[in-house]
Amino acid sequence: MAAAAQDILKKRNSPTETTYTSWVPHSLYSLADEDLLLYKPFEEIMRTVHYEAHREMMEHRSLMMQYLTVSSHSHLTKELSGIKGSWFRPYDPEARDSHNWYGNVSYIMNFRDLLNWKNWKVYFMEVVDHRTSNVTYLLLTDRELHDPELLSREYDPRRLGGPWYLDIHGNNYFLHDKSARRYNQREENIFPHEIHFFCDFQEDGMDEIKKLLRLEAANHEAANEEGPHLCYKYRSGLQKSEWKECPSPWSWKETQARLERETELTTMKNRPDAGVGFFGLGGF
């Protein structure tokens, strides 16, 4: 598939750093052929974190929020700088036993429930090409935006060829194929395309979001092995000298045992005679 001549380069880092290219296609629906076979259906979305981050969220009784900062995505538009929310991606039950390079614990919610919760608008933020794969980032927000460039990239999921497709029956699909094109189509992907949603929850909506979430252990046992796509937090990037040992290279069974132990502690702490309740797996 020929690359669109008008691809917009947004940011490219130094060759001595982690290699990536941030860009926006001239047509938001030109990442792939209009072929549903290149897509996978999904009903839920997830955010996977390392076990230490999970424990921190449990202790603070809050979903850990992230900011769009100058060093992340605000090169797209100044209006996004400082927006706080959480990244989620499609949950694929077929890949549950496969290695998850994002961590040990997945926070999962039904995507339709999320879409029905607010009057969301969707904006195409960027595509980021890494060495072995690329990722599309979409923004879900209900706030009023004014930046003309961002407004021109309001995304319609009812069209094929982009990262997310919504059919006439309300079924959701995400682009999951190695053929998803890169900036100027200079390289081929080794791993399938990913899509991440930045959900602009805002603080006043966190109680509702917490009700939608469930937890699931993930397989992260290959985190410290050699090779790409094994641990996003500790062992990603071009320079191996900067890699660190992941502290939780566990199978899903090992993580599941820890989650079950948390449930036992929650049960004991929440007895009528136990005093202050414990923030555990029963909910936020």
Structure description:
This protein is of the alpha+beta class. The protein has one domain. The protein is about 15% helix and about 25% strand. It has helices at about 50-60, 110-115, 150, 205-210, 250-270, and strands at about 10, 20-25, 40, 45-50, 65, 85-90, 105-110, 120-130, 135-140, 165, 170-175, 195-200, 215. The strands form two sheets. Strands 1, 2, 4, 5, 6, 7, 8, 9, 12 and 13 form a ten-stranded mixed β-sheet that branches. Strands 3-11-10 form a three-stranded antiparallel β-sheet, with no helix packed on it. Strand 1 (about 10) and strand 2 (about 20-25) form a beta hairpin. The longest helix has 18 residues, at about 250-270. The model is unreliable at about 270-284 (pLDDT under 50).
Secondary structure topology:
Blueprint: E1 8-12, E2 21-24, E3 39-42, E4 44-49, H1 51-60, E5 66-67, E6 84-90, E7 105-110, H2 111-117, E8 121-129, E9 134-141, H3 148-151, E10 164-166, E11 172-175, E12 194-199, H4 206-212, E13 214-217, H5 252-269
Parallel strand pairs: 9-12
Antiparallel strand pairs: 1-2, 2-8, 3-11, 4-6, 4-7, 5-6, 6-12, 7-13, 8-9, 10-11
